[in-house]
Amino acid sequence: MAKQISHFTLVALALCYLAFAHEPKPLQDFCIADPNSSVNVNGMTCKNPMQVQANDFYFSGLHLMGNTSNPLGSSVTPVTVAQLTGLNTLGISMVRIDFAPWGINPPHTHPRATEIITVIEGSLQVGFVTSNPDNRLISKVLNKGDVFVFPVGLLHFQRNIGNKYAVVIGALSSQNPGAIIIGNAVFGSNPPISSDILAKTFQVDKKLVDQLKAKF
């Protein structure tokens, strides 16, 4: 068990360095996010540096397995500025993704970040789609220790292709990369997109669109 934790830690640290990036040139050592501030800026306002403590740079939990008992069979544990305020202005974040057998992380995009992942356990089919007009699918099967990168903003996915649980650690080049899950955005928007629009977009019957909406 200790050996597995050590391997997990080393891989996580390596990913941090591989995905190193930052927002526009910092003017100070750090800018710990102050979630209680009422000031609206592009990002998060800074906590008084004299009140900064070690815990502002600390997060614990990526060793814990996520709950994959859901229809997708996957669980994402994020470490963005929302969970680790010390990431503010540093342009980097992490995720742990757990997969039940044959579980998927459905097609989605990160509008503000490139993502690089490494497989800790299991085997995954991963892929991304290039932009119009080509819409080319770039896909590969990954095994334990393999690394893959998804370019910023492009639609991508991961699927466990084994009968055992799989684990991925990812790093992203933004403190707040965002995630647009295509199914949720298209069929579960609030307020909903007109079924007439979606039926014409996908060239299907409106009844099918309504059935899909009911699932989101």
Topology overview:
Layout: H1 2-18, E1 74-79, E2 93-99, E3 104-109, E4 115-121, E5 124-129, E6 137-142, E7 147-150, E8 155-160, E9 166-172, E10 180-181, H2 182-187, H3 195-202, H4 206-214
Antiparallel strand pairs: 1-2, 2-9, 3-8, 3-10, 4-7, 4-9, 5-6, 5-8
Helix pairs in contact: 3-4
| Secondary structure tally, helices | 4
* Biggest sheet statistics: 5 strands, antiparallel
Binned, the helix content reads 10-25%
What is the CA-atom radius of gyration, in angstroms?
19 Å
Principal-axis shape: globular
Nearest-integer average pLDDT: 90
**C-alpha end-to-end distance:** 39 Å
Question: What does this molecule look like?
Answer:
The chain is of the alpha+beta class. The protein is 19% helix and 26% strand. It has 4 helices and 10 strands; from the N terminus they run αββββββββββααα. It has helices at 2-18, 182-187, 195-202, 206-214; strands at 74-79, 93-99, 104-109, 115-121, 124-129, 137-142, 147-150, 155-160, 166-172, 180-181. The strands form 2 sheets. Strands 1-2-9-4-7 form a 5-stranded antiparallel sheet, covered by helices on one side. Strands 6-5-8-3-10 form a 5-stranded antiparallel sheet. 27% of the residues are buried. Mean pLDDT is 90; it is low at 17-22.
